[in-house]
Predict the structure.
Amino acid sequence: MTNNPIIRVEDISFSYKVNQDQQIPVLKNVSLDVYPGEYLAIIGHNGSGKSTLSKHLNGILTPSEGGVYVNGIDTRDRMRLHEVRSKVGMVFQHPDNQIVATIVEDDVAFGLENIGVAPQEMKERIDASLAVVGMSEFRHRPPHHLSGGQKQRIAIAGILAMRPQCVVLDEATSMLDSYGRQEILTVIRKLHEEGMTIVTVTHHMSEVTQADRVVVMEAGQIVLQGTPREVFSHQARLQELHLDVPDASRIAAYVHAQCASFSVDLIENDEVVEEVNRHSIPQAEASGT
Amino acid sequence: MSAEFELSRNITIGQYLPTESVVHRLDPRFKLAAFVILILAIAICNTYVGNLFALVICISMFAVAKIPLHYGISGIKPAIPFIIILATLQLLFYGEIANGGTVYVQYGFITISSESIRLVLVSAMRFVEVIFLSSVLTLSTSTTELTHGMERLLGPLHKVKFPVHAFALIITIAIRFVPTFAMEMEKMMKAQASRGADFGTGEWWRIIRRTKDMLPIIIPLFNVALARAEDLILAMEARCYTPGASRTQYTHYKAQGKDYVALLTSIVISVIMLVIPW
């Protein structure tokens, strides 16, 4: 990663004010760089500060100490907040609570109207972004007839139309059924392949395995960081943090404990099958002779 | 029993009926303007013939918009008690005010004259006309078009610092969340009913009891609404919404010949209604 980061999070701390003399610290000295084209997953259990961190990435929250810079722009600079927010788009958890308009295409247009895009260009952008998320034929529908996954795709389209460099998904799949989640993951993967920077906040481990880099949060700090394989190799540590590991990792670790030659750093189901095959074939031959 | 909880099925806001008629294809700004002009004319006109003429126009509008008349009639049904109460009150107490004409009955404070009878009949007709007109408007215009049209028509008020866009946005969001809250309410009624609460079992005239029955629904509903509003604010801010900032508009309406014709027609109809002397 020789490129300059899109988002630089420099040693930020953040606390919620309960009342005048009581504050609840949520983030403590967090530093994080997000690079162009990267697929970053932030995991942690409830209250670990992962959502709060993600809300700092486009200036919805601003740090109490330290600074967040998007393309070098301080998110505290209120004059340039539009620039920050049109570069870093954000999709939220609840599909119903982020749709503003009564018609799908009007909702996608909402962000564009806010940043003052000319009407002719708006149409092109709306067409393109609805096509990316595969919702073109729904453009004249009212949103309340759509499924959760479809609503989230509309929310993503609304962000994409603003032509961001980075899309932050703040637990965007947690309210969806498994079908809806697959829809969203497919869209995310496609965006990532086209070069979009993705930051996803989640507690579904199956979503983490497709990321380039995983950041594990605990009590407002980053406690583990690395590729999914590296992170999931710290099974004991993750269990301490009350985080699941993917089924594949758990099975691999269990078999590894019984049979030392069975590889332990597996994160995908296919890899387990392969590893089992690798082991069973020579043994079958051995028993045959 | 099951139908009691099916709230989201019975929502009539935005009862758009797409029949692709000329009325449907009118520019919503012009349609709204014509509507307002006709409503004003109906409010001013107090002659029998003028109102009969308006009634005929309203009914023929259903034909032009290719909307079956029973849609309009079903809109009148719930208004009948009000029309009757209003008519009775006017008949009994307006004789003094609407004086003139021949006096038919004079008994204590009750005066029934030809003038007061006219007042009663004309107000009943006005009721029906207004319901018919607004039915045609809402049946032939989607809520989105209505809010767009209203926003554009109110546009000039921006100069006197009236927050036109914010106003239109409030209405859009309100409409947008009606089905959401109906679904939410349905869920809550089912949740409360499954724990033994009973809704709608009290007789209809026991208003206080029936209102009390609704409390365990209304309070959580407000709670949920506030939580949703907070989420919505975040999502809007994340998409660069700044209250009061200048913004562009996606939908553009371009007036065509038929729109001017419609507006002109409504003016002509209004003038005719107002000049008819009987």
Summary: The first strand of chain A starts at residue 7 and ends at 19.
